[in-house]
Structures are given as C-alpha cells and as structure tokens.
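During the second year of the project, the team shifted from modelling isolated chains to modelling whole assemblies. The rationale, set out in the original proposal, was that interfaces cannot be judged from single-chain predictions alone. As a representative example for this report, we include one of the complexes processed in the last quarter. Its constituent sequences, exactly as entered into the pipeline, are reproduced here:
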Amino acid sequence: MVTASAERVPRVASQADVSASELDEIWKTKPGITGWLSTVDHKKIGLRYIVTAFAFLLLGGLEALVMRVQLAQPDQRWLTPEQYNQLYSTHGMTMIFLYAMPILSGFSNYLWPLILGARDMAFPRLNALSYWIYLAAGLFMYAGFAIGAGPNDGWFNYVPLASRTYNPGMNEDFYALGMIFLGVSTTVGAVNFIVTFLRTRAPGMSINRVPILTWGTLTASVANVLVVPAVSLTFFLLWMDRQIGTHFFDVSQGGQPLLWQHLFWMFGHPWVYAIVLPAMGMVSDGLPVFCRRPLVGYAPVALSTVATMMLGFGVWVHHMFATGLPNLALSFFSGASIIITVPSAVAVFAWTATIWLGRPVITTAFLYFASMIVLFTIGGVSGFMTASVPVDWQLTDTYFVVAHIHYVLIGINVFPVIGGLYLWFPKMTGRMLNERLGLWNFWITFIGFNLTFLPMHLTGLRGMPRRIYTYPPGMGWDELNLITTAGSFLLALGILLLLINVVRSLRNGAVAGPNPWDAGTLEWATPSPPPPYNFRVIPQVASRHPLWESRLQETDERSFVDYGMVLDHGRETAGTTPLDGEPDIILKMPEDSYAPFLVAVAASAGFCGLLLHVWWLAGAGLLGVALALVVWLWPERKLGQRVGLQHV
Amino acid sequence: MSDATLAYPPLPEGAVRRIGVGWWGLLCAVLTEGALFGYLLFSFLYYSVQLDPAWIPVRYPSLKLALPNTIILLLSSVCVWWGERGVREGRRGRQLLGIAAGLLLGMVFIGIQLKEWHDKPFSLRSGLFGSLFFTITGFHMAHVGAGVIALALILLWSALGYFDRRRNAPVLIAAMYWHFVDAVWLAVFTVLYLTPYLW
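Output from the structure prediction step:
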C-alpha cells in the first residue's frame, strides 16, 4: 500500500529480526573513486579528519625539530632570521589551527553518532563539506610555506608588522585568506555538532545521560560558532588593508594595532578552550573504562565544562597585559583569569577521585589519560601565575609562556588524543594496538615531553625571549637549550613508536571484537569496525552506561540495545527532543552527494582568485559555490522537504 | 530482551514544519552571523570611543534615504511573515503574494542603498571611517543579496507547488533568515546612522 501520510508508527523489532544486508544496501558507500568523493558516512569522514590532522601534527613536529637544532647551541646561524620566522609561525599555525581542533573534530565525528545511538550526524553532507574545506584550506596555507611565503609574524600575526608596508610579500595573504577559508570549515562543523547533540540522541538519552566527550565538543562548538567570526573578520580586514587599500589598521589614518589584538584574542582565548575541552571529555570518558567505575562527579564535571567556556569568553585581555591598557581592565581580566582555574580544578579532582575510588587497569591508554592530569596541573599552575599582572609583565614573551602553552596544548590535547587512539583504535579498525610497544611509546613520549618543556620554564625565568632565531653564549641559557633539544628528539622518537605501532597493528594486531575493554557506553554495542548504518535498531537508553546497567544496579530501568526502532525506509534515524530525548520525528538522511566536494573545489578556486588578484576566477568560484548550494538545497521528495513523500 | 516491549507514537517523517533539523541549523547560522555583525559593530564603536569625533567625515549622517529605506526593509519582513502565515494556513495565493512582495521590497532596498552609497562623499579607500562604513554596510548588502536569492527560490518552489500546511520547512527557514537580515539592519542603522547624533 502506498501512503502519503506525513506520520508513521516506527516498526519496533529485535536486532536478530532485522536484515543487516538490506540496511547495508541502504547505507553503504559506493566502491571506488565515486564513493570516495561523494561519501557522507561520518566514520569515513572522521577517519579522514584524524589521518589528515595527524599528518599536520608530524609536519609541525618536524618544523619544531629544525628550530631546536638551531637553538641547541648559542650563536648558530644556519637558519636565517626570515627562515626562522616562517618556521615558528608555520609551526604555530599548523599545530593550533590545522592539528589541534581538526583532530578533535575527527574523534567527535567518528564517535558521536556511535555514542549517541544514531546512524549519522544531523547534517551528513555538511560534515563532508567541513572536511573537504579543512583539507583545501590546509593545502592552501601550506602552499605559501612551500614556495617560501609562509606566515612570518607568529601565529597571532600582530599588525603593523603584518601590514603591507612592513611585510610586502605574499606570506600574510596566504595566511589571511587561508584562515578565512578554514573558518568556514570550523563553523559548519560546529553547527553540525550542535544540532546533532540537540536532535539525534537515542530515545531516552536525556542530556544528563550523554558521555562527557559530547559535553566537551558541544561547548567547544557553541564557542566556535560565536568566536570564529572574530578571527575571520580580522583576517579579512587585514587582507583588505593589504590588497584593497582600506585603513582599518593604518596608524597614519587613526587605525589602531590594538583592534587587531582585541579581535584576535576575543577569538583566540575561547579557541584555546575549544581545543582542550573535547580532549578533557575524552579523559572523563576514558578513565572510567580503565578504572572500572563510573566517573566521579558527572554533573559537576559537565557543568564545569560549560562554566569554563563561559568564563573563557571574558579572559582575552590577559594576552594583552603588557600593551598599556587601563588598570581597571587589567584587574578585571586578571581576576577572571584566576577564577577560571576553579572549574578546571573540578575536573582534576573528579579524575583523581575516579582513579582513587576505582580499580585501575594500567594500560597504555590509562597512562596517557592519567599523566594528562599531571601535565594539566603543571600547565594550569603556570597559567595561574601569568594571570597575575605583575608576574605576566615579567614573563610575557619569554620561554616561560612557551613552556606554558606546550604543557597546556600537548598535555591536554596530544596526550588525551593518543590515549583516545589506544582506547578507540580497536573500534575504528577492529584490531588492538600493541600494549608492549604502547608502554615504550608512552614512557619515551612522557619523558621526552617533560625533558623538552620543563627546563623551558627556567629558560624563561632567566629571561630568554621567545621567537629569537639565535642567542649569544653566556646568558645562562646554553645548557637548558641543549637539554630541551635533546628532549625534543626523544619526544619525536616516542611519536615515531606510536606510528610504528599503528602501522604494525593495522596488519597484525589482535582482533578486537565489539567490546575489548568491557566498556559501558553505546559505541561498544556495535561491531568493530561498525557497519555503515552503525546500529541495526535504534537503542533506547535508560542510563549513562547502557552496557553496565546489570552490574551497577543504579535503578530498575534497563536500556535496550538490541531491540528498538528499525527505521529502514531509506536512510533514517530517530530525531529526539533537545532536553529529554523523547522521539519526536523520523529524520530522513541524505544520500551520498558530490555537492560538498564541488563546493570545496569552487571555493578553493575563488580563494586562489583572491590571492592572485584574478578577479574573474574569484567571481567564478563564488558562482560555482552558489550553484552547487542551490542544487544541494533543492527540496527533495525523498527527504520530506516537499510534498509527496511516499512510502510502501 | 524481546520479552520487554517498546512502543513509540506515530512520528512525522522528514522536514515537517520546525521539527526537522534544518530549522535548528538555521538558528545556529543566525547565531554565528549575528556574532559576525557584533564584531563589525564592535570595531566601529571601538574607534568611536577611541578617536576624536572629527574622525567622521560627515558629522551628522543624513537620514533622508536611510530612514525610508529602513521602513521599506521592515515592511518587506511584514510581507514575508504574511506569506509565511499563508503557507501554514494552506492559502497558496497569500503565500505567493507575500513572498513576492517581500522579494520586491528587498530589491528596492538594494536599489536605494546603491544610490545612498553613490552619494556618499567618502569611499572605502578614503579613510578609516569610509573603510568601516562600506565594509559594514557591504557585509549587510551581501546578506540582503543572499536573502533575496533565498526568497526567489522559495517563491519559485511555492509556485511549483512544493509546499503545503505541513511540508513547508524551506519557507519557514528562508523567511526566518530574511527577518534576521532585517533585524541586523536595525542594529547597523542604529550604530552607523543614529549614534553619531549622541556624541
């Protein structure tokens, strides 16, 4: 019978009664290049994000090693000042923009639908778009570096040094346009996470039952939606000043360099939290797996995640303490920067208590997560120190700040990410990473990291400025720099061991099975690797740990993971209400599509046109984007966007 | 576990009214675009408080065209809202008429704004104020342009009979975007045209 009614009672069945091959037919990506360019599967996109971001991590690491060789001893000059400037600026751009956020987007893209009990993200095509634009923007920014025109004014790129008068090459144009381009990817990705969180959680998964990772990524995404426009705008204004002849930062016309700093750091500081909160979420979800108990203090940790970001909007001026702002402003932002340690401390105490009250199983993943608590504390204390205005005046622009940022970003981003890799690699590939090699990998990375960055605090206290390409002997910095360089190579060795472990385990790692760690959340209810449709039936969730309920005995309610809505009239998943997770719609999901790839290609052409002043190309790119978007958004009967959705 | 029972009520399918995900996506887009204009206006106000009032080439901006144009844009929002109600009530004529009138008024706004730009004694390159003025109003014009295209598309789709009382999410989404563009203009108008009278 063919009906055109807009409502349908979803069929409920046991997993065993649902045909996997039919669902597979509906959801699978076509083989070959066509499928590769058009897929919208969140798992494929997530893995692409992870692999690409890791490649950028390695590039950024190599750039750091080159700099460390120059700084190993005083008075070395085999890198010229200009080469050194481009290296440290590109290193910052790579790590902060092309690695730190995208790697977390990769994990969240891969994991979210699995831990939320959905079949894909809310906007699968937008997901593909955000990856393609990330890749295109990354290549665009690196194209400048490859032809000797990488950014050369540090990653925060202060004017007037970045203006055309003092920086006439194309360096800053590559960087400015690339950052605007990358901002599109970040923004559409963030929108996707927000709507996915609000609307596609499994029935019964009220917002107090979601894993902390989703709180972290949600908070980061809301922040990105609000602050990415600031950095895109300020880079756009800079580009117009340089190439169109406007006067936003032109001092002779009354323009003020401080406007750049405000706009940059209004973005920059929330961004710092955006690139750590999801990683903190990974620790909050990962530690309990290996401590064999639920996280201590779920609600305080979730609330402090959100509170950190709210306070994080009001601390940007602590990057500008030395710019001569009024005392009242300094006091306010200093106070806010000190208070923000409180919600961070909540998480630290919660993790410590989870280990204390649990029965830890010492795996590589556990070591990465647990050591992160130590590194976070060290980075937190140095941050707390520089939140104080007089201390900051002494330490700003010295290696102390370099030590701080690396404890924060490697400690709270890279360590959880590698821990997360050990935890979820079995889910993603179906194979375990080798634990023996893993322990070598961890200890060498951990010792190498601390050998590199712990002495840097002292280097900074002894007054060595950051960003100098060489230094004279006898300043009290020689031995410290040598130790740091040695440590950096040890750290690199640790990362190399990780790569070897990944490559070896992909081929001959032990077969993982669906739930090798005996973990409690929904992603472990799927096979490893999960099929294209994730779940044969949509789970019905009754607690935070659907797979641990019979052991925890928290309530009498039970989740259903192998019995639930079938939803097999084409690509479908359950839409639920934002707070309670009550089902209120059957979401129709789009088929694979070339539109995202084409939008990214057209936009790349447009940005190349802007860079090279080929205005017709810029116009053609814009037109191409517009046409692809019209095709993309044309209402489809199958998706129920216009009348006439029929089903048999 | 098949001895337990789960039953769900009848659920709408696809993009029905505001329940689908498209509407929520639009709200996020509005949030991020609103933030963008926030930073633009912040930049303008930052210079307004930092610099001597003489930084404005024309001390008191003329409202002769800008005020009527503001009213035209608000009227277009009313028309679109009226057409949007038409689609929700299943009255196709009202739906087409409302959207078409909104679209027309939107284009009139662009025309008058171009004339306004042409008459200004300063330009994008002439100084700091000009750079800010033309960038902020330029960003707004780009959004009006996108809104006009969106209205044209939903007019076309409405004429093709794509929507009814339940299936009308694209209309609601495009209409909401148009209201947002108008609301932003009120902020831009207030800051660029009215605040100079306060100093």
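The longest helix of chain A spans residues 81-116. Residues 32-508 of chain A form a domain with the Cytochrome C Oxidase; Chain A fold (CATH 1.20.210.10).
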